[in-house]
Amino acid sequence: MRRVFSWPVRVYYEDTDSGGVVYYANYLKFFERARTEWLRSFGLNQDKLAQEEDLIFVVRRATLDFVRPARLDDMLEVTVEPVKVARVYIELAQEARCGAQDLARAEIRVACLNRQSFKPVAIPQDLRAVL
Fold it and tell me: C-alpha angle 118/113/65, rounded to 5°?
């Protein structure tokens, strides 16, 4: 069963360009924060995984579609939905919405790497089961 995780994000002045519109690259930051909180919702801490298990997750691929702009002070809902948990990577669908309006969509592939060698490693079975 696929589960959708949602995280609220307020648009601050620092997130916008001179026109008061969210700068496109900042959606990547919003998506990253939501993925971090998604992992935390399972009791997983990325720093702890790195320190204790030598595992890090890195974005391998990101495909984004921008639908309409978010603006200063908008309250966004940023979602994370696991699509596929494979041996060494996770595919995720992410969206940013303001109310009922879609703002941006992303397909993200996150790879599991050894923290020291930066080589791909299998996601531990217990972790895959949680995700």
Answer: 105
Identified catalytic residue from 15, 17, 47, 102: 17
pLDDT digits (tens, 9 = 90+) for 38-76: 999 999 999 999 999 999 999 999 999 999 999 999 999
Q: Radius of gyration (Cα) for the chain, nearest Å?
A: 16
Specify the CATH number for the domain of residue 65.
3.10.129.10
Output the DSSP codes for 42-71: TT--HHHHHHHH-EEEEEEEEEEEE-S--B
The domain of 9 spans 5-130
Find the helix or strand (DSSP H, E) in which 28 lies: helix 26-40
**What pTM did the predictor assign?**
0.93
Q: Does the annotation mark 17 as catalytic?
A: yes
